[in-house]
Amino acid sequence: MASKLGSSRIKIKAPRKGISNESMRFDDAWALLSEALQQIYERDASNLSFEELYRTAYKMVLKKHGDPLYNSVNNLVKARLQRVTTTQLKPARPNFSLTSSDLGRRESGNRFLAAVKQSWEDHQLCLGMITDILMYLDRVFCNDNKKPSIQVTGMALFRDNVLRNRDYDIGADLNRVILEQIRMERDGDVIDRARIRSCVYMLEGLYETMDEREDQKLYLTKFEAEFLTASNEFYTDEARKLLEVCDAATYIERTNDRLNEEWERTQSTISTLTEPKIRSIVEKHLITDNIREVMQLEASGLNFMVDNDRYEQLKVLYNLVRRVDNSVIEIRRMLKDRVVYLGREINKGVYSFRKPATPGEGPNGEAEDKSVNAETAMALRWVEDVLALKDKIDKIWEYSFATDQGIQQTVSKAFAEFINENKRSPEYISLFVDENIKKGLKGKTEAEVDMVLDKAIVLFRYIHDKDIFERYYKKHLSKRLILGRSISNDVERAMIGKFKVEVGFSFTSKMEGMFKDMNVSQDLTTEYKKHLANLHLDNDSNIDLDIKVLTSTFWPWSSMSGETTHTCIYPPELEKIRSSFQQFYLRRHNGRQLTWQPQMGTADIRATFKSRKYEINVATYAMVILLQFNNPNVESLSYNEIKTLTSIPESELIRHLQSLAVAPRSRVLVKAPMSRDVKPTDKFSFNAGFQSKQLKFKIGTVKGAGNKVETDKERKETEEKVDESRAHLIEAAVVRTMKARKSLKHGDLMLQITEQLSKRFMPDPSMIKKRIESLIEREYLERETADPNTYVYLA
Amino acid sequence: MHSQGLDILMNAIRLGDIKAVQEHLVTSKHHLNAVDKFDYSPIVLASLCGHYDILELLLSLGARCDRDTFQGERAVYSALNDRIRNLLLKYDYSVSVDNKQPYATLLSSLLSKEVGCASLTGIFRPRPDGDTLIRPRNGGDEIVAHAFVLIARSKYFRDLIESSGTLQVNRLPIPADADSTLVVLRYMYLIDSGDGIENCGTLDSTELAVYFGLPSLCKSADSEPGRSGANKRTAVVEAAQEDFLRLWDEYLSVPLCLPRGEPFSISMLPSRIKSLRPDVVLQVESQFDGNVFFYAAHRAMIQSDFICTAIRFKQEFQLSQTGGQWPIIVSIDVSPEIMEVILKWFYTDMVEIPSEDALDLLQAADMLLIERLKSRACLLITTQDSDGLLTGELGYSIFDVARTGWITGTFPKLDPFCARFLASRLEQCLEGEVIRLQFEELIQRFRMRFEALPAHMFSDEPHDVDHVPQLQEPASETLKTDNYEYVRLTTALDELLVKLGFDV
Asked: For the segment A45-67, what is each residue's pLDDT rounded down to a tens digit?
């Protein structure tokens, strides 16, 4: 290549002249630029030629004057800012002297803020223009030399020469004025929020360092901390003041207002960055530290609000507490105490009723009857009161507590607590259902019925001793079924369905059995009639038999029939039909045993008196008694004669004779001598002259067939029965568990048993122990020899 | 800038939810090549996450994956595995450099809601609003467009606008329906709808092309089916360039010429230029006669940060004070020839320039802060291999090139060229005093640069690290050769070399 070109010498051209070679003196160029920058600061930029200024700066950079240009510009900006500080800001510095009035201080603060705002806006505007003109310097020189851009430097210069001016601490003044104005606003004054906001924006736009890190904003490093400290003090004070002068309602209202106010402040006056911080301060002082005390205020606290259904206040209170404690423990605790308290008040009614009744207890039937009736009414009232309380609390829960799950649990616990404190609650609740099914639900729609039943279920849920409830319910149910007192089978079934959902099949199986019996009996009666028709026997017999065959295990026998066995010598016409049915039945169901329960039955008889014929509905026993007089040869019978003829148990006999011969409206027999009591020597005869207004009427027994609360005697029996069945259940559970586990420590076994049975009732530990002992005695279990605390199952 | 819709798409891609991706793209086709706040485009993310099926879907829908773009490059390099990489390469991953991309993006950004890759053009400014409102037949919203684009690309609109005179705001009621109009506008603004023009609107593309007078649209639709997506795209962009070249040649390249000192007024412009609704006038002084040239232009197309800032400065700080002066005049300190080169490049992305002007162009581009044009100018300079650089026949010498590179910050591109050039012509160079002085200057600069090096090396910007070896090698090559063969270099030079740490 050299040889090819080397032959001719080439003249090398010297570098040409161009922009890069134009001579240029820094001072001349700077004079032009600085003049222009001054004009910008004087707000007289309209005549400047942007192109020329840009080109000048461009050439200076090309000429390697970048460094001095950069420094000179910064110096110029700095000098300018210093002058602004002395001439504009210093005279506007606020007067903090304590002697001046609030108004005066606010005015002077406003003037100062306005001055700061003005100087900042001027600075930004001018800096923007300067940055535009020096764009080439920024892009090329600053970039190549890793210097902060003109913009960034300009911001830092403002920070150092205005806010942190060596002679006048504008920054501190600013903080102080803003804080003072905020305090004035907190005290109810009106301030110029927009003006403060623009100063806050300024602090947000400035940084501690040239890196401009987000967490190094002057707002955060200088202002916010002071603001938070001041707020802390303010709210400590505020909380104390409020507590001193306000009732609970006012307190929570003010707290709510304060929270909103502070939120609004972060949106309109200071930075949203502060929002979570100031919120937590207000929450701490006004809620966390004091809300408990507020709720406990005697005359206006939580109890007052609950008692008086202050939904709105409770709602606000709930929302406040939730801010600091999501599970609102404090509210729950107080609410529980209150509900239990109110529940106990309801219970008290029951106790105070029962106490005076106790001394009068005795064989005196009438007095007892009265007190039983009254107590039944009271039981119903108890249930209604509890339900009313439940309704009240539910409304509060729904409206004020936003259906909070935790609160619901608390309320449930509280109800369970006081309901179970009343030992008779299972009976009362069953009575309530009984009452409603018998009467209360008449004429109501399905939905209404369902609602009442649901209420009953709610209370049922709270009961620990579900087995006791079951016992009562079965008793009440059986009476309703046999006496045909339910208004609707559907309602009964619906109720049982609900129990089933709540506690399962085993709880309701017997009740369902009772229903089945009723249906089977109906079929049986029809079939029996068919059977008779087929036989063409006894067509002349005027007796219509309606029979109910009850499976003895399903029905609460003893509680229905008492202890005495029920015997009766039926008159021949009845006896005939009775044995005919018995034959019919036993043919169909070989090997079963039928026990007749005449005390449960009723009969419709047609009786002819002098005046006319009447149809009378009487109990089976009463019919048997009346039939004794159906013989024209019989004039009168003495009590003893009747007793011998019918062999009806004495107590029943007396009761029925009373209703047939003593009760004024239904005196179909005449008793001699005429008196209330029935004595063995009394004589009875047919009252041929009987008259009644109705053709059809009913002679009830003296002791009503309706479900009433138990007398103490009955209750004692019930308790014994319950204990007995519990004993069985416990033993069964123990054996079941031990069979599966073979060997178990005492504590574990107790735990297992309690857990298994708690759905039905709360087993008493001493009872479990007793059962275990009994099982050991009967050699189902034994204690391990090495460790007497462990049981072993014996197969 | 980034819509929430795009974020939804990106998340679906992250999760590999191909169904969601598909559904999203049915409604928001324009997201196919958009980028999110991390500069991810859908294909970058899909290939990074290794979702082969999604990537395939995106590519089949027409996602671009060109190696010269940041996104395309990134997709291939960040591909999770070879399978993904091969898919990208198979899918018409164009190996040739597509330098039309930034131009097309600029044009699209004028219309589309999503400003695509502002970073590619190096310009950050708000999207200028259009100056013309199009009212489709069947009502709906008016569509905002730019008169100069409409005139450049569509004969139909050209006739319509020129006949309607120069009203304050162009309002064009047109008999086409909104869907067809949008299809045509998308085509005119180079918005890549991926699925082509064929199946949109009520008219087919040929009808649209005839109706709106878009011969190139017709061609692009008729192009042989074998052409691949990227080639098709290239053709579409080239058609646009041709249209804008015509606009340049026929309208904008003719400046208004006034004697110096005479004030410019908008009314002096010919009405056909006024119908283009220029919002900027660039003022250039001739160096030879006393005339001043005024070029009508559009902010929308101007890719110079200087001019954009000047416009903003005048608008914000000066016009409000002096009262309306429209359009804004910006005077520029370059020759009319260079001004025309730059303006033509703004509109067409084409640079045709005699080698003599290349260096002036580079300097002008640097002064006006047009990064992309700087690279183009460097390319022009470094692709010549003429002795003219030594003799100065071109009006500048190789040393001017080196110095300009130094001044304009383009030395990473120019220095290797200079070093190679000098090394191959050392014998001819080393005559005379001029040479020695030039070398001294060169070495001086090198030293300054090396002193600055440590800072660069510790910095985290990758391009600095990249160009260090580039810069060292040719330089030392030059100087070493120099030192062995020519003892005439002064001892001062030797010392300098030692100081520089070169192996002497």
From this structure: 777 888 889 989 998 888 888 88
Interface A:B, Cβ pairs < 8 A: 97
Tell me how far apart the terminal alpha carbons of chain A are, to the nearest angstrom: 115
Contact B396 A16 (CB under 8 A): yes
Q: What's the fold here for domain A598-698?
A: Ribosomal Protein S5; domain 2 (3.30.230)
How far from the centroid of its chain's Cα atoms is residue A472's Cα?
29
Chain segment B270-327, per-residue pLDDT in tens: 888 888 888 888 999 887 777 899 999 988 888 888 998 888 888 777 765 555 556 7
Cα–Cα distance, A270 to A264 (Å, whole number): 9
Contacts of B85 (CB under 8 A, 6+ apart): B47, B76, B79
Q: Which of B284, B291, B371, B292 is nearest to B330 (CA)?
A: B284
* Candidate from A16, A55, A135 with C-beta closest to B309: A135
Q: Residue A670: left if φ>0, alpha if ψ -120 to 50, beta else—which one?
A: beta
Beta strands in A434-516 (DSSP E): none
Asked if the bond preceding B327 is cis, omega within 30° of 0, the reply is yes
Q: Is B194 helix (H, G, I), strand (E, B) or coil?
A: coil
B397–A15 C-beta distance less than 8 A: yes
Question: Is residue A98 very low, low, confident or very high in pLDDT (cuts 50, 70, 90)?
Answer: low
Domains A22-216 and A713-793 share a fold: no
pLDDT in tens, B160-194: 887 776 555 556 777 777 777 777 777 888 876 54
Question: CB of A666 within 8 A of CB of A621?
Answer: no
Q: Which amino acid is at A395?
A: K
Q: Are both B80 and B145 inside the same structural domain?
A: no
Q: How far is A47 from chain B (nearest CA, A)?
A: 8
**Separation CA B25–CA B31 (nearest Å):** 7
Which of A1, A5, A11, A50 should one mutate to test binding to chain B, selecting the residue with the greatest count of B CBs within 10 A? A50
Nearest by Cα to A487 from A433, A432, A437: A437
The yes-or-no verdict on residue A236 having pLDDT over 90 is yes
Contact list, B403 vs chain A (CB under 8 Å): 15, 20
B437: tokens are 């002085």
Q: How far apart are CA B78 and CA A104, in angstroms?
A: 67
What angle is formed at CA B460 by the lines to CA B455 and CA B461, rounded to 5 degrees? Answer: 95
Compute the Cα dihedral for B483, B489, B494, B500 and give only its sign.
negative
pLDDT tens-digit series, residues A16-29: 545 445 567 888 88
What's the rounded Cα separation, in Å, for the pair A292 and A314?
14
Out of 1.20.1310.10, 3.40.30.10, 1.10.240.10, 1.10.2020.10, the CATH code matching A218-294 is: 1.20.1310.10
Say how many C-beta atoms besides its own lie within 10 A of residue A424's C-beta: 19
Relative to beta strand B280-285, strand B328-332 is parallel
CB-CB: which of B306, B317, B399 is closest to A15? Answer: B399
Exposed e or buried b per residue across B60-73, where buried means at least 16 C-beta atoms within 10 angstroms of its C-beta: ebbbbbbbebbbbe
Q: Is the model's pLDDT at B123 over the cut of 70?
A: no
Does B266 contact chain A (CB < 8 Å)? Answer: no
* CA separation, residue A542 to residues A387, A605, A606, A686 (Å): 51, 10, 10, 21
Higher-confidence residue of A208 and B135: namely A208
Fold of A713-793: Arc Repressor Mutant, subunit A (1.10.10)
Which of B211, B216, B238, B237 minimizes the C-alpha distance to B157? Answer: B211
Number of Cβ atoms within 10 Å of the Cβ of A73: 23
Tell me which chain A residue has its CA closest to the CA of residue B321.
A46
The answer to whether B256 and B267 are in contact (CB under 8 A) is no
